[in-house]
Amino acid sequence: MTNGEEPEVPQLPRELYGELLRLRRERAGLTQEALAKLMICSPGNIAHFERGRRRPSPEDARRLDQILGTADDELFYRMRRTWESSRVVDYFTAVAETEHQATLICDWAPSLVPGVLQTPAYAKAVYASGQIRRDDELNDAKVARRMRRAQYLSDPQGPALWSLMDEAVIRRPVGGPSVMAEQLEHIAALGERGRIVVQILPFSAGVHALMEGLLIIMNFADRPDMAYVDGINWGHSTDDPGQVRFYQRLFDMGRALAMAPENSLALLASVAEEYRHAP
């Protein structure tokens, strides 16, 4: 975990590798077929690389670097080694890969806007904050993947989202006033269109049951419900019915202390306006 947010799919080496490959290929003006011809392989192989389904061989990685202009820093060769050696955050992988199958997602955010609700500018600021040496290309790949993850919000058949946020989420300036204004307006617009339910848990609520970290609960129509809890450098997912009920009670307790949805949307609009007029 970084920056107090969920370690979603874009953090996985195979997904980042594929996203960077797609971005570099498109920047070079190449189709998958054209790149495959230069690589002397099938277009299907390129598609598998970009989707994270297959790891390029060392020779393929070096050829990608030569063709796509990254040979000096051996970008794809180095990232292949990272893919090979990285330990995937298994406890979140199940959550990230099944959320689109849920009927309802209850999401508690204590410090940052939930990933699926983030605007590109906000997401990029979050990713950059966790880097000693900023890597814009890597961040662009992460942001692009995050935006695709959020597509279920516009799918009529996708899961409903109940987003409960601490007031700190909307008060903490991430990326500057204009980025925050755009971000809060985006959330408010989704709420007003009925795509999500948003509730803000105000500072005035004082101490509460959800103060220790992020919580995601997913309800399914045809499989056991799942809960995911997260702290600094740890996380846990479970589909044990007793544990899921326990976490649902915590979420419900926080929801009971939160502002009503209509008041929450009004607060989002008000704070966005404050950011718009910030010096």
From TrEMBL:
Matches recorded under CDD domains: HTH_XRE
Q: Which domain of life is it from?
A: Bacteria
Q: Which PROSITE patterns match?
A: HTH_CROC1
Q: Name one Pfam family in it.
A: DUF5753
The HTH cro/C1-type domain covers which part of the protein? 21-75
GO molecular function annotations of the record: DNA binding
The protein's name in its UniProt record: Helix-turn-helix domain-containing protein
Organism the protein comes from: Streptomyces harbinensis
